[in-house]
């Protein structure tokens, strides 16, 4: 019969599988074929995601910010998440940060993070070439840019390293970027005592935070969007293949997804897919028509195709 169900908590841009089962008083059966689908990536809007965290945090929540115990992993649940797109300088006193949390954290033991994508070129005030960023913070702060656009922040992409327990300290860094959009994130934690977080930027190479201007997603339309977008990717191999029972069968899955992990579902008996090469091979055991789903998972794209 026709059935429907609602599944929540799915993540963006991921590959999911399902089977259906039916049961009665005699027993149950589970569908032989696996259903495969991918969720859509986030559709960006102007601004930056802003997250407030309540608790005792340290450098490990900033470095790396999207892995391990970092703020932007599934392991930490923010007490408040908003999209910041108002005309307001990135110039937050302790009182300002407490207000942004809706007074959900007190004056000590909290953290904040901001994520989205920096847009270079087009209508953005940021143009291709060297771009500098700086933070002034009490306590530690960082600023990451996914310079190589592979969807994750890596060691060489920590643009501003202002970590550590300290009073107000200025730090700056710079990167060279081409036109496009780049995953961008900043974060701070406050242990106790005073607190402040400021983020500034300037086109070109600038090593002095005081010579830069405040980041302001509202006053610089086009500078930030809430998520990075990556070129559309797909499975590029043929959608049909035929073989005969007996002799070895082989088929190559191809894709323009970078660093793909391949998989194939509902293959005829006797065939298997090599996850690293995308080669489907084996000996066909019975004749018939099979509907196979092939998939390629990369860091920024997950795509499926029919075979
Ligand atoms: Ca404080
Ligand atoms: Ca990267
Ligand atoms: Ca402090």
From TrEMBL:
Originating species: marine metagenome
Gene Ontology MF: a single term: calcium ion binding
PROSITE patterns membership: FN3 (PS50853)
One Gene Ontology cellular component: membrane
Gene3D superfamilies named among the record's database cross-references: Immunoglobulins
Upper classification of the organism: unclassified sequences, metagenomes, ecological metagenomes
Any matching Pfam family: He_PIG
Residue stretches making up the Fibronectin type-III domain: 1-42
Protein name: Fibronectin type-III domain-containing protein
Matches recorded under InterPro entries: Cadherin-like_sf, FN3_dom, FN3_sf, Ig-like_fold
């Amino acid at each position: 019969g026709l059935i429907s169900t609602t599944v929540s908590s799915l993540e963006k841009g991921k590959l999911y599988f399902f089977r259906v089962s039916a049961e009665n008083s005699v027993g149950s059966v589970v569908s032989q074929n696996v259903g495969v689908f991918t969720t859509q990536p986030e559709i960006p809007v102007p601004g930056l995601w802003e997250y407030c965290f309540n608790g005792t945090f340290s450098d490990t929540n900033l470095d790396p910010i999207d892995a391990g115990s970092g703020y932007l992993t599934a392991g930490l649940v923010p007490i408040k998440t908003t999209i910041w797109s108002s005309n307001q300088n990135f110039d937050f006193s302790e009182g300002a940060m407490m207000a942004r949390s809706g007074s959900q954290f007190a004056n000590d033991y909290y953290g904040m993070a901001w994520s989205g994508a920096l847009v270079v070129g087009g209508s953005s005030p940021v143009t291709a070439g060297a771009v500098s960023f700086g933070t002034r913070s009490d306590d530690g702060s960082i600023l990451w840019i996914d310079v190589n656009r592979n969807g994750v922040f890596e060691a060489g992409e920590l643009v501003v390293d202002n970590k550590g327990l300290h009073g107000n300290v200025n730090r700056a860094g710079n990167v060279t970027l081409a036109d496009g959009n780049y995953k961008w994130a900043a974060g701070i934690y406050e242990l106790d005592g005073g607190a402040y977080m400021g983020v500034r930027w300037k086109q070109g190479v600038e090593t002095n935070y005081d010579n830069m201007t405040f980041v302001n997603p509202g006053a610089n339309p086009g500078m930030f969007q809430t998520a990075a977008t990556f070129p559309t990717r797909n499975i590029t191999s043929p959608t049909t293949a035929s073989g005969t029972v007996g002799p070895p069968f082989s088929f190559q899955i191809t894709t323009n997804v970078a660093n793909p992990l391949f998989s194939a579902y509902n293959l005829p008996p006797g065939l298997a897919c090599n996850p690293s090469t995308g080669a489907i091979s084996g000996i066909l055991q019975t004749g018939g028509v099979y509907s196979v789903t092939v998939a390629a998972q990369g860091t920024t794209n997950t795509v499926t195709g029919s075979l």
